[in-house]
Design a protein that fits this description.
The chain is mainly α. The chain contains 20 helices and 2 strands. Keywords: Membrane, Transmembrane, Transmembrane helix.
């Protein structure tokens, strides 16, 4: 009873957020503000990256290695990656992985190189708020609106404090471009038109190949019915087929470019094994920080599927999570890699909504919110010697 009274009191105090014409935007701005305060107060050393970014862009007029390759690729897509040309770049280096990440170079090619590091970051910030708005609209579709605005706030505030949330457009000044892939994956489940889904998946894949691996969650989304009843039926949909065809098309184009331009290989099994070995030294820490408090939502969703005997969906969702997490561990940046699986969070919310009472779901999302807000992201997290988690 006491906890219920506290939640009721919290809801009254948050009434200014949860009412009015622009209540969604108020929730989003407060959630992003919470992320910035918690994340940077938890590790102020992250500000070093912003100081260096400002100095390079506006004082020294220099580019870091990633920005420099994006600029070169905007002129000649494969300048650094032709056979025998600058093949001295080790395969484990981030620069060596950029040859098929052509979305950002294409933007620079279209809109120009002048201060492109600054305007790319500004574009991500601007679209980031749209991204959270679309996430909120999906959550509203799952939870309902008027009677569940407090639950919506708990979810969005908790989600925004993940790297897959506000972290992807606030912290990514490198730029890796993860935010754009997250946005395109979201649009692949937001719209129902198979042609749009095909196109958005293509855009996501050309941002980063991690999106290809995690497109499995788009297929799961469109393969199981998401009606408000408890009938999670398997169905072959045109949307799921469009996602699969988009992945096959991307792989075909990659193969064609590799053979036609004689691009040297940067994939080595030995490197994957050594990277995996290094990452599992902090297995629990890295896995936890992928989803923070939202793990509670995911794990309960899996338990519900088991108890309700939805074994096909359980196998698909759990198997995909295990597979994509394993891929993240061999792709070096575990936190970034796991964040590409963020659609599993929305799928789990959908499952919990179908089987939990409103009170149970309210307590669950409150706990997820508190844990996520109190846990800073590992991205740009510096420790002694300048070494950083990812």
């Amino acid at each position: 009873m006491y906890i219920e009274a506290l939640i009721a009191d919290l809801e009254k105090k948050l009434s200014f957020l949860l009412s009015g014409k622009f209540w969604i935007w108020k929730i989003i701005f407060v959630s992003v503000f919470l992320f910035v305060v918690v994340d940077f107060s938890g590790n102020p050393s992250k500000l070093i990256y912003y100081r260096d970014f400002y100095d390079n862009e506006f004082v020294k007029g220099e580019l870091d290695s990633t920005h420099a390759i994006i600029r070169e690729q905007s002129i000649d897509y494969f300048a650094f990656f032709r056979s025998g040309k600058d093949a001295s770049i080790p395969s484990y280096k981030h620069e060596a992985k950029l040859k098929f990440r052509l979305f950002l170079p294409t933007l620079v090619r279209i809109f120009g190189q002048k201060h492109f590091a600054a305007w790319l970051y500004g574009l991500a910030i601007a679209l980031g708020f749209l991204y959270l708005y679309l996430i909120t609209k999906v959550v509203i579709k799952i939870l309902g609106e008027k009677e569940n605005r407090l639950l919506i706030f708990f979810f969005i505030a908790g989600f925004a404090n993940l790297y897959a949330g506000a972290g992807s457009f606030i912290l990514d000044i490198s730029p890796y471009g993860d935010f754009f892939a997250f946005l395109f994956l979201l649009l692949s489940v937001y719209f129902k038109n198979p042609l749009l889904i095909f196109g958005f998946c293509q855009l996501a894949f050309w941002v980063d190949e991690r999106a290809l691996v995690n497109a499995i969650f788009v297929i799961i989304w469109w393969t199981f019915s998401i009606l408000p009843d408890k009938d999670l039926k398997f169905k072959i949909s045109t949307q799921a087929l469009a996602t699969a065809i988009s992945g096959i098309f991307y792989l075909g184009v990659r193969w064609y470019l590799t053979t036609s331009y004689k691009l040297y290989d940067t994939i080595y099994i030995g490197e994957f094994i050594s990277t995996f070995y290094e990452n599992i030294k902090m297995l629990s820490l890295r896995v936890w920080f992928g989803f923070d408090g939202m793990w509670l939502l995911i794990l309960l969703g899996l338990v519900i599927l088991y108890r309700e005997k939805h074994y096909f969906l359980l196998t698909a969702l759990a198997g995909s999570l295990i597979g994509t997490i394993a891929f993240a561990f061999i792709a070096y940046d575990v936190n970034r890699g796991m964040s590409y699986s963020y659609l599993a969070i929305l799928l789990s919310l959908m499952i919990c909504k179908k089987y939990l009472s409103e009170k149970e779901l309210k307590y669950l999302l409150l706990i997820c919110f508190i844990v996520s807000v109190l846990t800073p992201t590992l991205n740009k997290f510096r420790v002694v010697g300048g070494w950083q988690f990812m």
